[in-house]
Amino acid sequence: MNIIINREKLLSPLQHVIGAVERKQTLPILGNVLLQSQNKKLSLTATDLEIELIARLEADVEQDFSTTLPARKLLDICKALPENSDINFSIDDHKVTLNCARSRFTLSSLPANDFPRIDEISALNDFEIPQNKLKLLLDKTAFAMAQQDVRYYLNGMLMELKPDHLKLVATDGHRLALSEYHDKLGISADKQIIIPRKGVLELARLLANEDNKAKIQLSQNHIRISTEDLIFTSKLIDGKFPDYNRVIPVDGNKILTVNRDMLKQALYRISILSNEKYRGIRLNISPENLSIQANNPDQEEAQEELTVQYDDIEIEIGFNVTYLLDVLSVLDTEDVLIKLKDSNSSCIITSPDNEHFRYVVMPMRL
Hints:
Layout lengths: L1 E5 H11 L14 E7 L2 E7 L3 E8 L6 E6 H10 L5 E6 L3 E6 L2 E6 L16 E6 H9 L16 E7 L2 E7 L3 E8 L8 E6 H10 L6 E6 L3 E5 L3 E6 L18 E6 H12 L8 E7 L2 E7 L5 E7 L7 E6 H10 L4 E6 L6 E5 L2 E8 L5
Antiparallel strand pairs: 1-6, 2-3, 2-5, 3-4, 4-16, 6-7, 7-8, 9-14, 10-11, 10-13, 11-12, 12-24, 14-15, 15-16, 17-22, 18-19, 18-21, 19-20, 22-23, 23-24
Helix pairs in contact: 1-2, 3-4, 5-6
């Protein structure tokens, strides 16, 4: 059978689902995308058995069909074809031929019946949240997730739900990021789930920066997030997230206020001569002044001073400069507020007028 699809209509959904396709997979069919047509709607599905992405588009297809094609090859072909061109798909049992103008491609297909799908989930809780709000929460929290930590429950993000607010928390044991959203969620009981790292990163990439609602469904083992043209499903990490409230300092009574951009640029300059392995820098904080210093095993040194708002006792404290720069990169306020207790305690970084985004960074010995 033959179907014709406009290149632009196909390219965007393909780019949406490609993140679920592993470059190295144990099952060959996991490198394919499932194309299904039903009631003049075409769906594209990709999965790595941990997450599943389904993108939908309108397609004037007279006859329902299903097949699978190599995902990255199909995407590369679509990218290479002329803009606003039409692609003619000729579908046979084991081959699919794509014709566009004078170009012709024949791809091997695998049976659609062999394509693995995540079972229909039985939702225990569901609620809605604007896409841009959820995207903002993810973007400001995801950087603190662990990567391949033996404490597998840190290789993801905690989503904590209460009837009137949602919290996202990520930590790698050295720093912690917390984002909050306050609104009636319409759920009756408190709940905590851990979304795996890959799912978090894909979701942040896919959500649109608009106020259209995303519907979130939670089951015992899965989270499903649906928008108008996309369905994202991810397995959950089976584990208990540490009590993050225990690591958020509550007694930081020494408050430093500094211009975010000036501090970020100064830290970047000083980091050039920090130890490449440990990335340690020293902050000397005194009334109205912040001195930032770094040195390395080659006996090289860097120092810079900033004028700040601070009127307490002098403190000398060390930090991994990368952790500080990561926080300053996701905060977008003019000034940042740093709360400290002493030289051996973690600090909290936030904006002066919005504590819905809070960041904890542990000190390091220099």
